Amino acid sequence: MASGPQAFVLAITLREGQVPAELDSILGAIAIGTTLPLAPSSTFARGLLGTVGEATAEDIAEGNNKIAPGDIVGKSGLQDIHDADLRGLPGHTISIIERSESQLEKLPPQVVDPEPQPSSSPDTSSTSNSPTADRKVLFAVAPVNGTPLQLTLDTDLQRNAESIVAPYGDNLVMLVVLDKTTGGVLAAADSPAAGVQSFSTSGAYPPGSTMKLSSSLALIRQGYTADSSVDCSSSATINGRVFKNHPAYPTALTGMVPLDTAVAASCNTAFLNASREISAKQFRSAAASLGLGVDYDTGFGAFYGSVPEMDDPVEHAAGMIGQGQVLMSPLALTAEAASVANGRTTIPYLVEGLQPTSTAQPLSAEEAAILRDLMEQVVTRGTATQMNGILQGAKTGTAEFGDASQSHSWIVGWNDQYAICAMSYNGDGADKQAVIDFIAG
Length: 441
Known about the structure:
By secondary structure, the chain is an alpha+beta fold. It contains 15 helices and 13 strands. α8 (212-220) crosses α14 (365-381) and α13 (330-342) packs across α14.
């Protein structure tokens, strides 16, 4: 180590009141009080807020002469992204202080007569450093306070969301809640399996049947209504590949069915067959109108989804049921619910003043009304009837991943106050329970 074997080593940072009594029994251990920027708890939005730490040599080298040894800088999350604004700048003052008589008496005779040199070491115990000493300021730079970030997070809702997903342990369960009207992120929580990451806002996962809302919008723009017939066949063959419905799909609802039934019961083959009528560009455009698949710079680690325009018919068809190359985060899918509920593209944001402006084709009032009806029927007679009285509209999804023997489970929806999305990585229904618990809490 640069400071030798006796250098002080920081072992752990503990909050006030958390220092264990056993610390005194550890040879060489000492608790040193200090002040640090801390969240309400050690887990509170930690993936979003990020961490700070003492500047490393690399931080200093990349700091454009604005970071010095000992400075505290952002290491991850918002603390890192907005470090330059949050940290501010230190002040500097260079002064000349007249030597006292006692200092002059201590100097060798040959250096008493000449004027004192700047390199002379001051006697810090003398009265020269007192407030009354004759001080001449040669140069001064006033400190610049950091600029605080105003976030949309609601402290109570964030704590509630974290308490709901915490018991899931090694199963990654994520929950994101928006102010339905504004799109402001009120809560974004990940179960302990996420570690210090915020996968709820930055993760990328196949969204399954939640993408059928984007597919429905693409069909609506081709003239479809909720009553239009679609072909919910027992299987669909696209360019030689055979797709089937979920094993639990009711056989009584196969054949030619209305679009609202295909959405409510979540018929895969209806949208696979309809993929021949929708171009990849039209599908991507519809998704963008619901806030999906467009990269907005909103000042935090947000993934708004990826909806690539696929030339391959199989990949294009798979994308329309949320498989293939289409990827989403829970944050992204809250945009889908908020956009349908509001009747306008609504993009989630976290930092006040950095609200994004949609670049997508606007939703029409007629399009939004049909989509709201489709989502409401999912709750009243479809795959989310347990949400009746909890959410006004919803869409569920199951997405295969890995060797196709595993699946994620999703739910996205809205009520009077919130747009909400939850996902369970292991596909065990924890997503729906998380939404029920959040609304109840």
